[in-house]
């Protein structure tokens, strides 16, 4: 039986685009399948802030950040905390990825036209010892153009492949099965869905109009994770993080459902680290949603006071931006799904950014003028819109009114004004001189020694109850689903492995479907800025390996 093309790529997100672009460069013929309409090309990367993890970059050096391969590897391994027999390939992928991030990654992207915002961000600061979780230095490089700027070169390369007759784009094709001929997986079957003109991110029709069967010498699975499937998230929720939340907001649309992982597994693939996942604790209900239950994440600076549902301050070092999963574990032990930031207008204007390309029109639109306008504004426009319209925001001039507003947003009044006031006043006393036993205050002062934080991310230390810094603001924070850290186990050539450890002949995987490499390159935690980069690196690897393998 003849082949339709050389390679079939399942999933037109960033990893699938990267793999397809490499196959085109090698002169291979490709069919790129995706269940969503063409306007959704690029997948979840389109909606991202465009953050990329780089090591010892020119942007870091210009900001006097001393980074190195050794320091980055120390941080990655301390964060990943690999401790399972099945971490063999994830560890190998981690070593390879840090080599990539400290080596050719920036130059490779730069040659394709990718540029970076000059201020480097400091995500996942950790707060433990030198060998523990977190970034020792700022490494979060924001792409000029955010998520659309990341995917643009790969969309361009894939469309060039279409023009050359090497690539067929087949959207509205939902894969339902993989099968073998003579021991090799070479057949992809599925359903054709009716055409849809819905906007990117909106729910598309699931009406089936036909079926398809396609054959190729190799298949690359780049179908994403499970973040839009809350039932599957709860099914795989790890015991170490407590009971799964009763309510979560979605950082991805519902079609990010993980079904392709099960299809690959039934074809013989090994799926590992199912219980490793990455969900955020600073989720907001989007006041202007694109998909159902649409959540937006706050990218916070370090100054907001963080309280649990009953108004108790979160323990050290669970400060904003320090340890995402450590904070999640603590929250799930409180018996409630939500927490609170308490801050003031001076802090929100300096320290709040919102994740998402659509929430950052200045960076997404590559407008220097608008970026400078953001820096001059008391509160950036997208953040002001949430203050004005978001259901999770309470804005008041005095603490009593703020607490009444907070209690109005929950089923029962959980916040005691006197206790909350005691915590805030105690913290404010620590601001009055340069000495303090409050480690969050120490962290704020330390952050402002970094020029990037002083310029755009960390407000000058001040009393939160100072009327001049007001009004006061409380933000109800929800658990927001996002990334799958486990996935299809792959070797360093991105070949999918079986339970016996042998390659599943003909099958490769990349991106979130492969745990961003190996079946879980991050281990238990992420250093941030590593998801887009993981898609690029693993997609590139899979495309090149498949191109070589088919001769």
Structure, explained:
This protein has 551 residues and is an alpha+beta fold. 32% of the residues lie in helices and 21% in strands. The chain is built from 18 helices and 20 strands. Strands 1, 2, 5, 6, 7, 8, 19 and 20 form an 8-stranded mixed β-sheet that branches. Strands 9, 11, 12, 13, 14, 15, 16 and 17 form an 8-stranded mixed β-sheet that branches. Helix 1 links the parallel strand 1 and strand 2. The chain is globular. The chain starts with a strand and ends with a helix. 54% of the residues are buried.
How does the SSE layout of this entry go?
Blueprint: E1 5-10, H1 14-25, E2 30-34, E3 51-53, H2 58-62, H3 69-80, H4 88-102, H5 105-111, E4 140-142, H6 146-163, E5 167-171, E6 173-181, E7 184-193, E8 208-221, H7 230-235, E9 249-250, H8 259-266, E10 271-272, E11 277-285, E12 295-299, E13 305-308, H9 324-332, E14 339-344, H10 345-351, E15 353-354, H11 361-364, H12 368-376, H13 381-389, E16 393-396, H14 399-408, H15 417-429, H16 439-447, H17 451-457, E17 472-484, E18 487-488, E19 495-497, E20 503-509, H18 531-549
Parallel strand pairs: 1-2, 1-8, 2-5, 8-20, 9-17
Antiparallel strand pairs: 3-4, 6-7, 7-8, 10-18, 11-12, 11-17, 12-15, 13-14, 14-17, 16-17, 19-20
Helix pairs in contact: 1-6, 1-18, 3-4
